[in-house]
Amino acid sequence: MVSKRLIGDAVRLQLVDKIGDESTTITVAPFGSDQRRDVKLDLRHWAFEPDKEDPVSSLGIRPRGPQIEPVLENVQPNSAASKAGLQAGDRIVKVDGQPLTQWVTFVMLVRDNPGKSLALEIERQGSPLSLTLIPESKPGNGKAIGFVGIEPKVIPLPDEYKVVRQYGPFNAIVICEATDKTWQLMKLTVSMLGKLITGDVKLNNLSGPISIAKGAGMTAELGVVYYLPFLALISVNLGIINLFPLPVLDGGHLLFLAIEKIKGGPVSERVQDFCYRIGSILLVLLMGLALFNDFSRL
Predict the structure, then answer these.
(1) Looking at the domain 1-62, which fold is it?
(2) Domain 67-156 adopts which CATH fold?
(3) What is the pLDDT of residue 91?
(4) In the chain, domain spans
(5) pLDDT score of 176
(6) Inter-axis angle of helices 177-198 and 224-241, nearest 10
(7) Are 114 and 135 spatial neighbours (Cβ–Cβ below 8 Å)?
(8) Nearest to 201 by CA among 12, 86, 48
(9) Is the Cα torsion angle 69, 74, 79, 83 positive or negative in sign?
(10) pLDDT, tens digit, for every residue of 214-225?
(11) Which DSSP letter does residue 268 get?
(12) Separation CA 278–CA 218 (nearest Å)
């Protein structure tokens, strides 16, 4: 059950932990009210790809955020939009005859149609105008994607929807946020590994160094506030994997020490050598699968 009052990424962590479950219950309340009610979500047909989707949106929940209007805030010089005659202040009304109600729809149309003509109907200073926009092409994830060089008008989220949480250094590190967040990440990692073993989570969710590098690059572009938590997530994952009871890892050495303590003598060299071979093979297979998944996503 997702029942605590959660904010932002905490909600996503809770939902990701439910991957492979049949259902979960979330507790919701109208904004500004304490009248809570429980809603049960059926997750049996939940199709969620972590590298492509947000877990909240994939459930059909649209979080309240800054409102993006189909009005141009800025048009870059010598861009496809500038060549088409678009100007700052223009409102895009229709694309190829279809009314435009959400900015994300326009973004997807531009992205999926590099080099192809898009018929625009816009409104400029109250007057209708028709233009033809041809998105330029740039390399994306294994294929060309379109871009036009414009920025939309963004209406910020009202202050009453924002929550500011401040901690002193001691409370942030020792008592509250850092310790709790690290513990949540550890539980999530162990839970996902268990679901991989039981088959509740598909093996194609495994990621390797290529996905890690892509994630690092994306979070670095967003800023240090996003980059540092990503590094923490990777560190926690690697730390837990290092505790696997495989002889080539620290977890394997701890296992041998525990066996030695129980039996009162060291494990024979023959058994250790056999375990090292098996452990190395399993580790290579695991890394090979992760790399295969990485290349299949390119």
Answers:
(1) Pdz3 Domain (2.30.42)
(2) Pdz3 Domain (2.30.42)
(3) 93
(4) 1-62, 67-156, 202-298
(5) 64
(6) 50
(7) yes
(8) 48
(9) positive
(10) 878 878 877 787
(11) P
(12) 36
Higher-pLDDT residue of 200 and 216 is 216
Is-contact 122 100, C-beta < 8 A? no
Give residues with Cβ within 8 angstroms of 77, minimum separation 6.
Answer: none
Rounded Cα distance between 110 and 120, Å, is 12
Please state, in angstroms and rounded to a whole number, the distance separating the CA atoms of residues 112 and 140.
11
Q: What is the pLDDT of residues 24-71, one digit of tens each?
A: 888 888 877 788 888 888 888 777 666 566 677 777 777 777 788 899
Give the per-residue pLDDT at 2. 43
Task: Give which of 178, 203, 183 is closest to 193, Cα–Cα.
Answer: 203
- According to the model, what pLDDT value does residue 1 have? 41
Q: Do domains 1-62 and 67-156 have the same CATH topology?
A: yes
121 bridge partner residues: 94, 130
Q: At what angle do helices 177-198 and 9-16 cross, to 10 degrees?
A: 20
**pLDDT: which is higher, 287 or 17:** 287
Phi, psi of 40 (to 5 degrees): -95, 125
Q: What is the tens place of the pLDDT at every residue in 69-81?
A: 899 999 999 999 9
Where are the strands (E) in 23-117, listed by range?
A: 23-28, 37-42, 67-75, 91-95, 98-99
pLDDT value at position 178?
A: 73
Other CB atoms within 10 Å distance of the CB of residue 220: 13
Contact 43, 58 (CB under 8 A): no
By CB neighbour count within 10 A (0-12 exposed, 13-18 middle, 19+ buried), where does 183 fall?
exposed
pLDDT of residue 110: 92
